[in-house]
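From the shared-data thread, chain only:
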Amino acid sequence: MVESTFWAQFWPSLVATFLGAAFGVVAALAADRWRENQGRKRREGEFRTALRGAVARNLELCAPLRNLDTGVATMTPIHQLDVHLIDDVFPRLVEVSSDVPLLQALDAFRYRLREVNRALVAWVRLEHENGWRQRPDLLDLRSRLIQMVARDADDLHELARREPLSKL
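Structure, as tokens:
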């Protein structure tokens, strides 16, 4: 009699154990995925906040460069744009974000910042060249650099106003 009750309880207990283990594994994996998604969204929010501040700071630095006039004795810029924070945070955002249009816009913004920095460095180097005011080729180069800086600063502001950077 003991033997028949054992087998009668064994099979339902075995099936219940396997079903419980299977549902437990599925539930544990779903909970882990949910926790990972929440962490990814939190990190993405933090990176977006940092990038929002970096974009705003660079737009402030670009503001005086937007309306440069090559005919006027424009003062030499004394600062470069701040691309370091964007360079540090952007790759991390790429890892956690699935917003491709935003990532493309940020990459274009970053590229434009680097172009402005290169032009500013060349402009400062030219300003320190001895006798550049007497050389027409250097005067022309200076005016082209000033035009490039002003154009790129305008482009940066325009990029920041457009979607999806305006929603950053």
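Residues 2-62 form the longest helix (61 residues).
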